[in-house]
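quick one, two chains, predict together pls
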Amino acid sequence: MTFAKVETAVDFPALERSILRWWDERQIFAKRKALNEGKPRWSFLDGPITANNPMGVHHAWGRTYKDVYHRFFAMTGHQMRYQNGFDCQGLWVEVEVEKELGLKSKRDIENLVPGDVEASIDLFVRHCKARVDKYARIQTEQSIRLGYWMNWDRSDEDWAKRPDDRKSYFTMSEENNYTIWAFLKKCHQRGLIYRGYDVMPWCGRCGVGISEMEMKEGYKLVEHKACFVRFPLVGRSGEYLLVWTTTPWTLTSNVGAAVNPELTYLRVRLGNDIYYLAEGAFRLDRMASLGESGPDEEDQTGGASTRGRRAWLPGVPPLRRIEQWFAEKAGADGYEVVGAIRGADMLGWQYIGPFDELPAQQHPYGYPEEVARVARQAGHWPPVSAVQAHRVISGGDAVTADEGTGIVHTAPGCGGIDYVWGKENGLPPIAPIGDDGVFVQGFGVFTGQQAADPATAELVFAELRRKGLLFAVERYVHRYPHCWRCKTELLYRLVDEWFIHMGPRGSEEGFRGEIMRVVRRPDVRFLPEEINGRARELDWLRNMGDWMISKKRYWGLALPIWVDEEDPTQFEVIGGREELRARAVQGWELFEGHTPHRPWIDKVIIRNPRTGRLMHRIPDVGNPWLDAGIVAFSTLRWNTDRDYWRQWYPADFITESFPGQFRNWFYALLAMSTMMSEGEPPFRTLLGHGLVRDQYGQEMHKSAGNAIEFIAAADTGGVIRDPKGKEIPFRPMGADVMRWMYVRHNPATNLNFGPAPADEIRSKVFFKLWNTYAMFCNYAIGDGYEPLTTPEVPVEQRPDVDRWLLSNLQLLIQTARQAYSSYNVMAFALECEKFIEGDLSNWYVRRNKDRLHSRHAELDEAGRRDKWAAYHTLYTTLRTLCQLMAPCVPFITEAMWQNLRRDPDPESVHLCDFPQPDERLIDRQLSADMAIVQRIVSLGLGARQLAKINVRQPLRQLILAPASAEERRAVERFQDLILDELNVKSLTFHNGPEPLLTTRWRLNKKTAAPKLGPHLAEAEAELAHYHGDTPPLTLAGTELAAADLVPEYIAPAGYVGSAERGTQLALDVTITPELRQEGLARLVIRHIQEARKKAGLDLLDKIALYVRADTSELAQVLVKHRPAIATAVQALNWSEQPLDTQVYEETISLPEGTLHVQLHRVPASAG
RNA sequence: GCGCGUAUAGCUCAGUUGGCUAGAGCGCAGCUCUGAUAAAGCUGAGGUCCCUGGUUCGAGUCCAGGUACGCGCACCA
């Protein structure tokens, strides 16, 4: 048995693909699981990936962590579930399916089968399911490509199964949906489920409510027409409230006017009229920065937004002060501030609304009828119409003088805060628009108008002008939400939705408080600590509103809420399939055989036991975070096998990208688990990680062309655009390189991903590791090293440098165990890089090449033992590194392992136990000594550089003045090593009372000159006489900083010195003719080696050689150093005459002369 | 507006319990080595450790205040 030859040029992606095949053939994953059967459990819970598109590289980050910790805990002997999850339901999938089918709106969906809404929804839902299956399968294949070991569904057979029966979990599975039902029922049993009307942003074109999350993507800086309107006060003839609004269409639904009781309001006389408005608003410079809401993407190109000023659009005139409006209207007569009044004293004043003639304004409890009915049933409202309700109310602090007039037009059916104020003050809600954004019946000339249409605003102005209520109209610029799909402006619309009551906002009461107590538990950890996840989660929990669980869409959880056909306040929450079957009075047979999705679930009708009437399911589907939040129960068989659930709950570990998730998955998981388990947390450790950016630090966007698909990074390569839009093609980097980029990164911060950082990682980590491995194997082949048969050299008998490497290796094992088991793989990865680059590649291997290279036949017994010691040391190190790194980079380590392993080693590196450190091999003294040596070598190289003498040129002597006894001892211990590294013949210590080097200080003129000014010359004169070890901080009477002075070390004549932190050394730079010739010999060797390479010879080939030099100096070198040259270039024959057989021939011109070289290969036995 | 976090070299970031003459990688500049060669290595320039004050023998590190940026929440009439 011997090592296979290793090529140094590797196609890593291709290598990875072959490893994948090999794992499959040999069933390595199955064997790993079998090994861990019955071992302690390590429980992981997957946050489901949305099965809606192929994976991007951002998905690979979290999935890398997931795989890394699975593999580590596998190697340390733990049983695991290996279950991946797919998120299936929700608007994102619907949107993509709409795109596929070319649908533009809900009406298009409901008309997919023309004229048949039910069949249309059924078809649409089936399309959604199909899309999920398609992309779940693609994501599965891509995850496998990443090296992610899970129980994957791989065959057609697997994918033909229903989602419930597959290996991965699917949130669209029946089990998942019905478990959410159980959760909702528990909530209902505690009285937490309620139906609420709320005003939310709505897209009239898509006919759907837009959630906060979706809204954040759609803010744009736009221009609207805003208007000032006067509301005549009742019983105060000629007096008016002055209100201002940016959404004129909502004036049709005005019910109240809100003031801040704490503010002072002015009475301003204009002509015969008195206007009320806030004092602060009257003279306010309205263009000064306000509502500092931060520019959004569109602003950047649109120009505008200057610092300290309001974001504005070019071409729109600046806002006038309100005072200016008054001045203009007053003309020569002027206006007059005739008094002031506290807002508190205005409360309750009645006024006449701007559109009181509309039928909608006359209807008790609000408008339209269904709104009024709910308002009546809710009990917050008195039986009055809007017209009757018009009055001044308190808006509290929310009303400011910084915007508008300080009196806020309040339309409870058209605005979020308006609705709240309406509820508090008994102002009935008027909802003017339908789900298409068009005014409904009851609004006179407005009925049939699009609310968002600018013409509607003009119509409002015309009406107001006609009535004499319009004070002013202005062009106004503000950030306004738009539909993230179709880009149309959103409207605030009153809709009925379903909620879970979380308890009073800002308190720790109720359900909210229960979840907070779980989050505070000390056995629940939030990592990384810098991001303070626990505090973030608590912050969200403290401030969140009630959980809106409904969505007026098609593809999703069927909310298990059945409502009485007559009385909308009577509803029931069904907790599961069997319960529904038992309660069904109609439609079960139609539903039977279908998943609990629309439209089939809607067929089932139950009876209201209290009224005897029928109850129908509400058409709403669920918030998708319900789907993902239940998985700690649905996937752990909470319904069917409670023992299993107890074994695996809570999860030891979860990890996801954290931005957003504290209010999404983490929240849903915590909330639902708190309810379901009565306070047992769903996880022990949560690891959050940041976002993937492009390599320039920009967010990745498909539209910007800087997003990278997973498969492009792994296998196909692709193109990215830099920030200037220039296209940059890139080659595939493979999964391991990607994985290492992720594991070495600090999860608390965003990661800049791209070909440039990938190249860096590849050369820094992968090439060094692979080259070391290749060198080891290839030399071992030549030397006949074989780990099993080559005589072992006990570690304690190996040279210091070997024991040093092994000692550092043990420390690395300790770090690895500590880091992996505390979910801090970065700590391991960074140490590992240092070990590979610093210790292994750049020090041990470089230092010990000669030991591996030495000609076996020429070695005595001790020499052979020394050589074997080096091989054993390297072998152990490479093997161990494979095992330590296997969780992070499973492919390259497997490839190496296959060549390195010897029976009875496990057939795969992933079947190994994770290494244990051998305490006996740890020698901290040795590590410290070597660190000193490395520092001194670096210092010596610095001196050579100063002297401008190549390292190739041997020098006579190095004198060292160590900084400490430790340093001296370390240097004595590793004297040979230092001499060799620095190519110096001898090393002596400096003794004597005088320092080896004289310190001289120079001015750093760049920084010191400005301080000294005209005293510069004087200061330099003073410096010339100064030789202290510390810089003089006062020169020419001027204070200087240490940085203004630069030390220079003056060595004795014939020497060059350098110094650092008390260590000083001096290098004898006298080059004798002998030394020069030695240096030339190395030059000759190098060029002959170059010639060998060009001749295409293998490392192990022997040669016949002829060399002729045209200078006497070089000729002398060739004679004098012939044995050394011959050995180095493996010349068995050195001919005095030009060679006559087939030769490689080259003439090399050097400054020192010209070399004529001939060589050809000879059989090894020829010598 | 409220809350959380961050601020260290041109860029990306390390920096443990306070001991620092502040580090790494990339980039830049200058070199070296040469059978790891589509590689490897060395040296150098480059710092107000955001600002101000405090605690301390000693502060990048701890405390207070400020500034800037990021994130979350609220608001955007």
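The longest strand of chain A covers residues 219-232.
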